Amino acid sequence: MHGLFGSKQNWRSIAKQLSNKIGASVVAVDLRNHGDSPHAVLHDYPSMADDVFSLCDKIGIDKFHVMGHSMGGKTAMHMALSNPSRIESLISVDMSPIVLNLTSIFAHYITAMREIQNARVKTQTEADAILIKTIPELPIRQFILTNLKHVPGQDYLSFRINLDALEASLGPQKDICGIAGFPLSDAGKTYEGPSLFVKGNKSGYVPDSAIPGIKRLFPKTEIVGLDAGHWVHSEKPNDFIKVVEAFIKANTSK
């Protein structure tokens, strides 16, 4: 499962390589309000987890390893805590079950995307010219622009992600709603199966202060740091695949 503003395309290369190495199917999903999946007003971890469990039911997968990056990582954690009997193992990629201050930076990205939407741009180049005014980092602009698509019958580009729902999900964390927090319904629960937390050593999403909480919720946890930022799997794909392959092979029921 991908992170905020991502899609199943983020996992294409990794999924193919992992499938070959572990000899099993790897299913990459578009979470709600992202990619080719339907839009919905509610965007929180219980809803996303339910969506994925429903998908697994439809394609006949009862028990499985679950892996997610960032927002997808928290979704995977909630799946393991809320329905542990179906989870063979948990892999969280650069995310921890803590409250993060996401509002300022990601709301900034949404503002830029709304400007592009309102400008009714016809090319990616036009869109990038708007983004570069406030987002100088080329990789981030390229990542955002993967969501800009042609819509049949429209002569301008539109974002396929649900900007309204995602913006609302970044608001104050009063309850289980909101992706910067973590579901209050998971408080006091534990997942006793094997867990792997792969963190980027140059990222701040899995700080040392979060490790006691991780181990409290996921007692059988292995934490591995790679020399990367937040997008660990795209920055260090070979190292990432090696770590994940070894973990899955060691924790697959015979």
From TrEMBL:
Domain AB hydrolase-1: residue ranges: 2-237
Superkingdom classification of source: Eukaryota
One GO molecular-function entry: carboxylic ester hydrolase activity
GO cellular component entries: mitochondrion
InterPro entries per the UniProt record, alphabetical: AB_hydrolase_1, AB_hydrolase_fold, Epox_hydrolase-like
Keywords: Hydrolase
Segment forming the signal sequence: none
Family: Belongs to the AB hydrolase superfamily.
Protein name: Alpha/beta-hydrolase
UniProt organism field: Rhizoclosmatium globosum
